[in-house]
Amino acid sequence: MTVSLSVVVPVKDEAENVTPLLREIAAAVTGEVGHEIIFVDDGSSDGTPGILEALKAEVPALRVLVHDRNIGQSRAIRTGVRAARGEIVVTMDGDGQNDPADIPRLLASLREGRARGVGLVSGVRVNRKDNAWKKFQSGLANRYRRWRLKDGARDVGCSLKAFPREVFLALPYFDNMHRFLIALVRREGYDVRFVDVNHRPRRHGHSKYNGLGRFFVGIRDVAGVRWLTKRYRGPAAPREL
Fold it and tell me: What secondary structure letter does DSSP report for 32?
């Protein structure tokens, strides 16, 4: 069967979250003829890969890819997108805070906008279920990035996104690039749409990120992305003679 949609979910040490999340994703995309769900385990040490492997009998659309060591969320997303068979890819976090029920709305917006040059639909979390300190850090990072990159990003930390696979594969890769997809997609000449999405509290486990430490690393990354943008002459439309 031809695959039209690939849902890519990077995970690390999410043994308690992957089962309910997979079932929710499967329910959300049941109307998509020819879909696959790709979980990419990024060096878990808590048995997550074994749980996912067992779930393949329950959800035939599930594929499980495993990194032999932890190399980061961007690399896990890239692994999943490169392995994807679908023309359209949806990415989301593996901690259960993104709501799979929002996937159809992102897909509808992307499909309606592709003829108008839309290359990415990015979720914007409303009523975030994070603590005040985490929300403060996120807001600071968003304001700084908008000032430096002029990309209009409203919520760079939301991993729930939909895009054509070919668009992602045309982007320059670097570790942590998943947080700059909006700027990088605009750099290629595509438009970006934003869709408000649900945000849920984490039920199990704990966040893998130090927000303040990530902010300081992000300052360097922002400088790099700004350089990439300045050193690009824009997309070309070659014609064959």
Answer: S
- pTM (two decimals): 0.88
Give me Rg for the CA atoms of the chain: 17
d(CA 70, CA 78): 14
**Alpha carbons 207 and 234: distance in angstroms, whole number:** 37
Beta bridge partners of 7: 37, 90
The DSSP bridge partners found for residue 9 are 39
Start-to-end CA distance of the chain, whole Å, equals 35
Q: Is residue 237 part of a domain?
A: no
Q: What is the mean pLDDT of residues 147-158?
A: 79
CATH number at residue 112: 3.90.550.10
- What residue numbers bound the domain in which 181 lies? 5-230
Q: How confident is the model at residue 58 (pLDDT cuts 50, 70, 90)?
A: very high
The rounded distance, in Å, linking the Cα atoms of 203 and 37 is 22
What total of structural domains would you count in the chain? 1
**176 and 224 Cβ atoms separated by less than 8 Å:** no
Residue 70: exposure state from Cβ atoms within 10 A (0-12, 13-18, ≥19): middle
Q: What are phi and psi of 187, to 5 degrees?
A: -55, -35
Tell me what pLDDT residue 67 has. 97
Overall average pLDDT of the 108-113 stretch: 97
Residues in the chain: 241
Q: Within 10 A of 71 (CB to CB), how many other CB atoms are there?
A: 14
